[in-house]
Each structure stands twice: as C-alpha cells, then as structure tokens.
TrEMBL record:
It is found in: Cell outer membrane. Residues 31-53 have a biased composition (Polar residues). The lineage of its organism: Bacteria, Pseudomonadati, Pseudomonadota, Betaproteobacteria, Nitrosomonadales. This is TonB-dependent receptor. Residues 31-60 are annotated as: Disordered. The keyword Ribosomal protein does not apply. InterPro entries: Beta-barrel_TonB_sf. GO terms for cellular component: cell outer membrane. Keywords: Cell outer membrane, Membrane.
Length: 309
C-alpha cells in the first residue's frame, strides 16, 4: 500500500522528504484456501508429500501473530528524472502457536510463544521517471538488505519441554537473512483537474538462501484513485493485490506459506502546512487464498506523517 501519493516517487520536485509510518496488523483468524477454518479442524489435517519432509505430518495450528511496524522512509529527488528511497522498518511482533499434534485447544509438540523487537530488513530503491515530458512513467530498482535478525528465539509451551528455548519460524523472524532484488514499474496521470490515479507493479525475489531458508518470490500490484477538490483533505481509494510463492529450504515451512491477497484500502491525506502532511488508511481484505493453514488479519490500520524539507 502507498501511504502517500508521493511515496511512490510520483513527485518531480527536487529535495528530501521524510516519512514516518505506523502499521498495526493483528493476524488472529485461521484460514485455509479461501475460507476460514477452526483450530480443531486445522489440527486434524495431516500434510504429506511436501517439498520439505520436515513439514509432513500433523498441521501446525497457530494462535495469533500481532504486528506493530514503524517504518522511517527517507526519499530524495536529485532532479525530475532520478530519485532514491531508503526504508528502515522497526518490527514489534508477538506470536503464539499450539504446535503440531494439538487438539486445537491445548499446546502440543513444538508449541511456543515469542516476542521480537528488532530492526527489520532495510530497502534501498532507486527510480527513473524521465521517459516522458510529464515524468509520469517510471521504473523502480533496488535491494532488500539482510539487516534484520533471523536467529531470534522464543519460549517453549510444549508440555514435554516447557520453558525451554524454542526456535521461531523463519517466516516470523524480523529478517529473512537474504538479499532480495526489487524491480517495478509505475504510471500516474490526471483524469481531470480534481481526479488523479496511479498504477504500480513490483516484483521481489531473493538472490540467495541463508541458513537453509529462501523466502518465496513476491508480486505486488497496486492501483489508486484520489480526489483533490477539497481544500482541507484529499481522500484516496486503493486496490492492493499481492501474490507470494511458498518459502523453500530445509528451515522453511513449505506447506503453509504464500498465497494471493487482495485488499481495498480507503484513506485520507491531510495537509498540516506547506511542508507537513498526515495520513491514515485502513486495509480491508476482499479476497484471501492462502496455501495450507495460515493466520490472516481482519484489517490493517496505518497512520503516518510526511515532511518535505
């Protein structure tokens, strides 16, 4: 999701901009495929023939994953055609799982609870938008760097190992341990004096595996519409789609990772003065098709502020 029209690099004015954004994401709903599933039903699933034999057997039943993200983004336009953006995320995540061989109520094999607070993986993304005189067609190119920790641990709630140190699933670590390449394209234009739109597609793929883990390739497709006819605020409506392939490797969950998600995201941007603006968005899932059994959110809430120097 784009938290502000200019955070995609859709501004041609030279100079530096600083964006601070907070996202709240409470994954508390078990889903399988396109529907909901109860913990009791999920515990009865037996996985076979997965790409990682360690994932074969009774399905893991997760309880919740609560995420708080604070992302600081520095954005610099060298000129109307070239710019660069650096995104630094801080992740506060709590997670609990009933493990495998559970009855859907009580902890069992490999159950644990965890709380992680750490800098995540930093992204450095360049852009070029000099293809047209309007500078409204652009390409994105960059890297996700392995700056986040991928070795954090939790506390076992498995009755057979209560209180022991437990490994956190690699997909729940603050970092993946991999360097990923990011490539994208975007286009924006005005419909008339009050209405404008943007469209964007971004691909992210890991260049390597780290400690027997490689995150699945991802594709993000975003479209947005905004109305600028009001003096005190600018309403926006975005459609955000994301496809992610399954993770791979001996340390990966190759069954219950990846899927296709589509969100409708209404929001508003409010100018505080000529340099400062505030924004708020809510992401509402309208289509969810997950592999295996996964936790999903009922909504995502985002608030933030952007300052132009």
């Amino acid at each position: 999701m784009s938290s502000d029209w200019e955070s995609l690099g859709l501004s041609t004015s030279s100079g530096f901009k600083l964006d601070v954004r907070y996202d709240y994401l409470d994954q508390n709903q078990l889903r399988s495929g396109t529907g909901k599933i109860s913990p009791q039903a999920a515990s009865g699933i037996v996985n076979t023939g997965s790409r990682n034999p360690a994932n074969d057997g009774p399905q893991e039943v997760e309880k919740y994953t609560k995420n708080h993200y604070v992302t600081i983004t520095g954005d610099y336009n060298f000129n109307p055609s070239w710019g660069v953006q650096v995104q630094v995320p801080y992740i506060d995540r709590s997670h609990a799982t009933l493990g495998t061989s559970s009855d859907g109520v009580s902890p069992a094999d490999e159950a644990y609870e965890s709380g992680t607070k750490n800098i995540g993986d930093i992204k450095v993304i360049g852009r070029f938008q000099g293809f047209t005189e309007q500078h409204n067609v652009g390409v994105l190119f960059g890297l996700k760097l392995p700056t986040g920790d991928h070795r954090q641990t939790g506390i076992s709630t498995d009755p057979a190992a209560l209180g022991d140190v437990a490994a956190i699933d690699r997909g729940l670590q603050p970092g993946t341990g991999t360097t990923d390449v990011i490539l994208g394209v975007y286009y924006h234009d005005a419909i008339n004096k009050d209405w404008g739109f943007f469209s964007q597609g971004v691909v992210q793929t890991a260049l390597n595996a780290k400690d027997d883990y490689r995150p699945g390739n991802g594709l993000n497709l975003n479209g947005g519409l905004r109305y600028t006819g009001f003096a005190g605020f600018t309403p926006q409506l975005q459609l955000n789609a994301r496809y992610v392939a399954r993770d791979s490797g001996a340390e990966a969950d190759t069954v219950s990772t990846g899927g296709t998600l589509v969100y409708l995201s209404p929001g508003v941007v409010v100018p505080v003065n000529k340099k400062l603006s505030a924004y708020s968005f809510v992401q509402i899932p309208i289509y969810q098709n997950v592999n295996g059994v996964q936790l999903a959110p009922r909504f995502t809430a985002s608030v933030g502020a952007r300052y132009s120097f």
